[in-house]
Specification:
The protein has nine helices and two strands. The chain has 248 residues and is mostly helical.
């Protein structure tokens, strides 16, 4: 077969029928850029989660194992996954821009294996964070905050008083401290059961029957939902990219 050649100004030669850059490499490059961007977004939302979970917004202490206590470490997993994925896709992008016309079998196996591991971890992160923020497991989250509330009333009642003032509520559950006003609690006039959940706050919140549970639920959802959404999108795109590598 006879091939025509074009001569460049520098004296080099190029075959005129050289094929254009393989469309699959371009497609994988686009996915790499998209996944890199989302990996950086995951890092940002994970840092936000870590900062908020460990902030003084809810100064409630808890000693003991629980589902939610473990979930407070999900932000750390998000940062680790985000950094690992970002570095992985930077490296993959460098490989794809190195003049390759297609992805070799060996490279495809390495990439798909790494993506599968990342997909499993990302799916775990997405499901866990969304369950924390969603209704089905609210009982587990509620039990954690209820126990934390009681422990903080016993060990650091001033923190509970400050929280009640900032949120405009009294007690953890609605109507929980209606029969135990801040003044009565400070004077020791409430029952033992009420003193466990109603902090003795001099000049404390007079919200009456409005408990703090609703505000705490809103804050919890606000801290975990963005992380779960980003992780879900990343898991879906990782799966799609794996399939593209196998098929294209």
């Amino acid at each position: 077969m006879v091939r025509d050649f074009e001569y460049g100004g520098s004296g080099g030669t190029r075959m005129a029928d050289d094929p254009p850059k393989n469309i699959s490499v371009v497609l994988h490059g686009i996915f790499s850029i998209l996944l890199l961007t989302l990996s950086l977004t995951l890092i940002a939302t994970s840092v936000y989660n870590i900062v908020k979970v460990n902030s003084a917004a809810l100064p409630l202490v808890y000693s003991g194992p629980s589902f939610f206590h473990s979930a407070t470490r999900l932000g750390i997993l998000g940062v680790c996954l985000g950094v690992a994925l970002a570095l992985f896709y930077v490296a993959l992008g460098m490989v794809l821009t190195g003049g390759r016309r297609r992805i070799s079998i060996v490279l495809a196996i390495v990439v798909v294996t790494a993506q599968f591991i990342a997909f499993v971890l990302m799916l775990f992160l997405a499901v866990s964070t969304l369950l924390v923020a969603a209704v089905p497991l609210r009982s587990a989250v509620d039990a954690y905050w209820a126990d934390s509330w009681s422990q903080t009333v016993a060990t650091a009642p001033d923190d509970v008083c400050g929280l009640e003032r900032s949120l405009g509520c009294r007690g953890y559950r609605n109507d929980q401290c209606e029969a135990c006003t801040p003044a009565e609690a400070a004077a020791g006039g409430c029952t033992v059961a009420l003193r466990r959940v109603c902090a003795p706050c001099v000049g404390g919140s007079t919200a009456g029957g409005r408990g703090c549970v609703r505000e705490i639920e809103v804050l919890t959802r606000r801290w975990f939902e963005p992380l779960g959404i980003v992780a879900s999108v990343l898991a879906g795109l990782l799966l799609i990219h794996m399939l593209l590598i196998c098929l294209v």
